[in-house]
Amino acid sequence: MKVDWGSLFWIFLIFSSLQPLLNRRAQEFRRLMAIRELEQKRGSRVILLIHRQESISFLGIPVSRYISIEDSEQVLRAIRLTPPNTPIDLILHTPGGLVLATEQIARALIRHPAKVTVFVPHYAMSGGTMLALAADEIVMDANAVLGPVDPQLGGYAAASILQVVADKPIAEIDDQTLILADLARKAMQQVQNFVRDLLKDDVPKRKIAPERIEPLIQYLTSGQVTHDYPITAEEAQRLGLPISTELPPQIYALMDLYPQATIGRPSVQYIPIPYDPRPALPRGGSRSGLG
């Protein structure tokens, strides 16, 4: 039988071009099924806001993602589609993002009548922390972190710009720095007012003691620590935030369906099963001693 190598080549080419699309569709289906399973278990609306470094498929250029206006549009739509008596579970994995988009999402979460829970499996920094402050409960992995929400201007912390103006005579400060200081003062005030709105004690769902609110605002917004400072679950609890570390196993399973895109060799590898360091025994062998 004569083999038509030309036809086989074109079939192979078509299959190779369709395979990534089929894989993406299959992955998307698994994600939707996992989200639906978690919703049914918790009786809630599950919303994921996950930002990883991704790559443009053709050029392989890494692109860092963050909370954007497009994100806020989608999250606000999901909240609008949620009945008032249905709890919202927001799964966060983000370095932060635009203040406008973050504040829109946070205000919508505050206004939702039912319970809002934020889950942090790894990190929710900056704007991610601001979204967590809008929740009734923050559930973190024991090793996950939050971060400060102090405003940044031109790559500099607003608090640091203000410190320069405070430390130097005004005659020795250039006009650009003075302009930045004016903007920094306004940005600091705006962020503090917004966080105060999120935490104020007349919001019925909030569980933060009134006397803890102002110290918490100052710690998170005034630049006492660097912007990338990791706030652990233990520290967040000491600050008065409603923190739990009982992260449901389904959250970890969901995160596995949103892997970091890799180019070439992965930087971390391991056997993805529960690990028993003891060597396997020959068939019929036995272990003695403790454990």
Topology:
Blueprint lengths: L4 H38 L2 E6 L3 E2 L6 E2 L5 H12 L7 E6 L5 H13 L4 E5 L2 E2 L2 H7 L3 E4 L4 E2 L5 E2 L2 E2 H10 L7 H25 L10 H12 L9 E2 H6 L4 E2 L4 H8 L35
Parallel strand pairs: 1-4, 4-5, 5-7, 6-8, 7-12
Antiparallel strand pairs: 2-3, 8-11, 9-10
Helix pairs in contact: 1-9, 2-3, 3-4, 5-6, 6-7
Keyword list:
alpha/beta, 13% strand, disordered C terminus, 291 residues, 9 helices, three-stranded mixed beta sheet
Description:
With 291 residues, this protein is α/β, with parallel strands linked by helices. The chain has helices at 5-42, 69-80, 99-111, 127-133, 158-167, 175-199, 210-221, 233-238, 249-256; strands spanning 45-50, 54-55, 62-63, 88-93, 116-120, 123-124, 137-140, 145-146, 152-153, 156-157, 231-232, 243-244. The strands form four sheets. The chain has a five-stranded parallel beta sheet with strand order 1-4-5-7-12, sandwiched between helices. Strands 6-8-11 form a three-stranded mixed beta sheet. Helix 2 packs parallel to helix 3 (99-111).
